[in-house]
């Protein structure tokens, strides 16, 4: 997702541009496998400082169920609201800060050709939107902690109630 905003930078404050998004992800996530296109909208607005990005994006993804460890389909959705500042003055061509390759925390900059690179912001937001414990379905029974059987598919013997007579005997032995 790259947008040349040179024209927008020359426009008065408050001017907007609307973009529809439908593209293959150019990056991978750590906690999920992206299986579809990133779709949604990106709205750009000229501000005093630079360009405000408001984006609503979503993408289909495959995650691993935290209970049964099978893969599960989900949709990751993010809302992005970030302001990018120019690194070169649009009228004079003068380099503004930062210096090339300088990194300033919590600040986003257009590149020297007035191109807004949104991919890295989108990647970070999507990564943060992955559920901490994704489930294949809300009532997933998970794996038996003793024998590892998938309790969605089979009932193992581990959870069988202990025969009450044996239980009485066991208590006697332990006393
Ligand atoms: Zn599951
Ligand atoms: Zn078991």
Task: Report what the structure shows.
- The protein folds into two domains: 2-140, no CATH class; 143-175, no CATH class.
- The chain has helices at residues 6-10, 119-129, 164-174; strands at 2-4, 16-23, 33-34, 38-46, 51-64, 71-85, 108-109, 115-117.
- By secondary structure, the chain is α+β, with helices and mostly antiparallel strands.
- The model has no long low-confidence stretch (mean pLDDT 90).
- The structure holds zinc ion (ZN) (2 copies).
Q: What is bound: which ligands?
A: zinc ion
Poorly predicted ranges: none
Q: What proportion of the residues form beta strands (DSSP E)? A: 25-35%
Instruction: Calculate the mean pLDDT score and round it.
Output: 90
In whole angstroms, the N-to-C terminal distance is: 70 Å
What assembly state would you assign to the polypeptide chains in this entry? single chain
**Total count of strands:** 8
Radius of gyration: 26 Å
What order do the SSEs take from the amino end to the carboxyl end, as H and E? EHEEEEEEEHH
Number of helices: 3
Structural class per helix/strand content? alpha+beta
Dominant shape: elongated
Helix content: 10-25%
Total number of distinct structural domains: 2
Q: Main beta sheet: strand number and arrangement?
A: 6 strands, mixed
